[in-house]
Amino acid sequence: MMERKLTTLLDGGRYFEGPRWHDGRLWFVDCMARTLLSVKLSGEHEVHASFDDTPCGTGILPDGRIAVLTMSKKQLLVFADGRLSLYADLSRVAAGTIDDMIIDGLGRAWVGDLGFHVPPPPDRGAVGRLILVTPHGEARVVAEGLRFPNGITVSADHRRLVVAEMDGATLADYDITADGSLTLRGRLGRMNDPDGICLDADGAVWVASFTEDAFIRVGRDGSELQRIAVPGRRALACALGGPERRTLFCLSAATSYEELRQRKSSSRVDIVEVETAGSGYP
Is this prediction's pTM over 0.85? Predict the structure, then answer.
């Protein structure tokens, strides 16, 4: 495999998550600083909004508005015209802390429900779920039995959904039916602590492996196709964007589980060009 050299686009954050390419910018959140940001490929960046709760998953609605989840209050907020407003309250649906999210091209939000409240209990099991929020604001559980659902990605044809199981060290691969119900196709690959993910045009999944300090490309058969190492840094999330969607944005942090408990972390965004363009959402 050809070694890929990363270029730093933005440094100096605390804990970057939820990267989504939209309108010539990468949009993402800083969970610890509780902010919504964007950055251009030139490195020019902007802070757009601040939160009174920890922001986590993000998504782009079909009309271009930016949506952001907040973990503890379990709210789905929308950023538009310089302000935040409530889009959906998931507090009555979610069994635990909500984490990552993606919005597909039909305007449906797919939300990960951990099934427990953070900090994670030591005896947690396969209690995670996925919640579907329709464009009309209706929410229902469409998958259960997940071990810490994290990053989520949906194919361009809206027929496939993949979610990282952080505790399960694998990817859960689902078929999406016309009404948004999910059928488990199987599980793909083995990697430690998979976090954020994205799809490419070959149907392969780029995975941020938190404790392997690497971004790993996993094929449809679960095999490892490529690995981009970030030695000494935790891989947090990734997205394919840029003019041809061949720019892989790699979000990482210099931290550890112990340091995170002490709120010690330094985050950055690196980029690298890849052969296969991105597809689907994000």
Answer: yes
